[in-house]
Amino acid sequence: MIYKKISDELNISEEQIEAICTSMHKTTEEERHMNCRMCGFNRCEQMVAAIFLGIRKKEECVQYSQLKILPKNLNMDMMAKLLSLFAMCNKTIIDLKKNKKIYEESIEILIKREKKWRVLFFQTQHTSTNAEMEINELLDRLRILGKSIDNLEKTKRLIIVCVKNVLQK
Questions:
Q1: 10 Å Cβ neighbour count for 70?
Q2: pLDDT for 103-120, tens place per residue?
Q3: What does each C-alpha distance from 154 to 1, 9, 38, 49 come to in angstroms?
Q4: What's the number of CA atoms in the CB half-sphere (13 Å) around residue 133?
Q5: Which residue of 25, 87, 109, 116 could cross-link 67, Cys pair, CB 3.0 to 4.6 Å?
Q6: What span, in angstroms and rounded, lies between the C-alpha atoms of 88 and 83?
Q7: For the purposes of burial, counting CB atoms within 10 Å of the CB of 77, is it exposed (0-12), middle (13-18) or buried (19 or more)?
Q8: In a 10 Å sphere around its CB, with 0-12 CB exposed, 13-18 middle and 19+ buried, how is residue 21 labelled?
């Protein structure tokens, strides 16, 4: 069995795991255990589980992306650089999205706290400007993160265009 742990935990058959691995062009044991972490998981096994659960796509695997677009007679140096840049964009986007989620959760907590402070304000006549400043600061950071994610998504699309142009030559 290729990935015994996920097959036991998720009740996924060996045939289903094999089908996912094959669809990702992971035909050898070495390919199935590259564990490059570029997809955001620590192990290829976790990525296969995520694909099985429908929360990830095989296109998010760097190895799959490389094998899918690499013809035999390509300028390998240029393609390697483009794919490395693409992988870094993917990883950075994943990290930024995690940070964005943390900021969103922090804002929710502060807003709840702010509501409590406003109640206290009416009872004690004290202002709660610290919470408003924290919320505004987090909202500013959230906007910047959103713009950074958008810019990285645009960079990814540009890299794909570059890859297509290299493939056409």
A1: 14
A2: 788 777 777 776 666 655
A3: 40, 37, 19, 28
A4: 4
A5: 25
A6: 9
A7: exposed
A8: buried
Q: Rounded to an integer, what distance in angstroms lies between the CA atom of residue 160 and that of residue 157?
A: 5
pLDDT tops 60 at residue 45: yes
Tokens of 109: 């907590």
- Domains in the chain: boundaries: 1-59, 70-169
Instruction: Record the tokens describing residue 33, joined without a space.
Output: 């255990």
**Amino acid (1-letter code) at residue 78:** M
Q: Residues near 34 by Cβ (< 8 Å), separated by ≥ 6?
A: 44, 63
Residue, of 70 and 47, whose pLDDT is higher: 47
Token code pair at residue 128: 């709660």
